[in-house]
Design brief:
This protein is α+β, with helices and mostly antiparallel strands and 307 residues long. The chain has 2 domains: 133 residues, Alpha-Beta Complex (Sufe protein. Chain: A); 133 residues, no CATH class. Helix 7 packs across helix 11. Strands 1-2-3-4-5 form a 5-stranded antiparallel β-sheet. The two termini are 22 Å apart. The chain is built from 13 helices and 5 strands.
């Protein structure tokens, strides 16, 4: 009975939190606080459409529109302010779920400055029109796509400008090849049942964990967590052309889990699992908690996830 009460309390509070969060979203308030508007002494005029008129004193200065795209952490929203001639005055990130370090890199490298003075019918393609920031490529691409989305709305709906058709391109390079190799090694490490002179299961698993630790954990920062699976329920399905690694890791993990009942990612690839193994090997310490403490500790991940 207590377990049922806790479960229903959990579901109920999460539902209430979702409703409160949804009702408190006020896009107008967020947009009025944009630095570009404040610095140029611009004011938004309430509008029934998705595109806002921007006034300077009592004269029409230009327009503001928001665009959306999928980053690595989830959907993000970008605001674009353009003058009446179709030139971008400023671009700012309004909302995102990206890792804070990625956003800090963009800010430090003055990533947003390159959009200023661009025509709103620019292609906004990486590389070429826009330069990505190393270490935050996916976030750079997502912001470029969202900027294009917002800019083209202004161009078509307000200024009757022609915009180019953008073909989706596959992003497939050395990074994707390395991830595929690591995943194959991970599969081999859990499916080979016997040791022989040619294939040693423990060595393959050690190799897949170390490679996952180095490349997925540090170099590419592409590790999966429970939050990635949770975002699926929020409609987070990024474009496969530019997020092949996400689709490969998520799809491959799901497929093997459903077909064979094996969790290849957590057992043989996960950088966090590799970290635990390495620390255990280096220190030789194996902690054993008292039973009463263990009973409480084992529930903390679920509590933190709810919190």
């Amino acid at each position: 009975m207590m377990k049922k009460i806790i479960n229903w309390f959990t579901y109920g509070t999460l539902a209430i939190a979702f409703v409160i969060g949804y009702l408190n979203i006020n896009n107008n308030q967020e947009l009025n606080k944009l630095n570009t508007l404040i610095e140029n002494k611009l004011k938004l005029k309430d509008n029934d459409t998705d595109i806002y008129d921007v006034h300077k004193e009592k004269t029409l200065f230009g327009y503001l529109s928001t665009g959306e795209a999928q980053g690595y952490g989830g959907p993000l929203q970008v605001a674009v302010i353009a003058d009446s001639s179709g030139t971008i005055v400023g671009t700012e990130l309004v909302r995102s779920y990206e890792t804070a370090s990625f956003l800090a890199k963009l800010k430090n490298h003055k990533y947003y400055d390159q959009y200023t003075d661009k025509p709103i019918n620019d292609k906004f393609e990486l590389p070429g029109d826009v330069a990505a920031v190393s270490g935050a490529t996916i976030t750079s691409l997502a912001i470029a796509n969202a900027t294009r989305d917002a800019s083209y709305q202004i161009a078509k709906k307000k200024l009757s400008m022609q915009v180019p058709e953008i073909e989706k391109k596959w992003v497939f390079a050395s990074k994707e090849i390395v991830i595929i190799i690591i995943f194959i090694l991970g599969i081999m490490s859990i499916f080979f049942k016997k040791e022989n002179r040619f294939i040693r299961k423990k060595q393959i698993k050690f190799a897949s964990l170390i490679l996952g630790f180095v490349f997925i954990g540090f170099m590419y920062n592409a590790s999966l967590s429970l939050t990635h699976f949770g975002r699926l329920f929020l409609g987070y399905f990024p474009d496969i052309h530019s997020h092949f690694i996400w689709w490969f890791l998520m799809g491959g993990t799901f497929l093997i889990l459903i077909v064979w009942g094996k969790n290849v990612y957590c057992s043989s690839i996960c950088p966090f699992h590799a970290t635990q193994k390495l620390l255990s090997m280096i220190s030789g310490i194996k902690l054993k908690l008292p039973k009463q403490v263990s009973k409480i500790a084992v529930k903390t991940p679920s509590f933190l996830l709810w919190f």
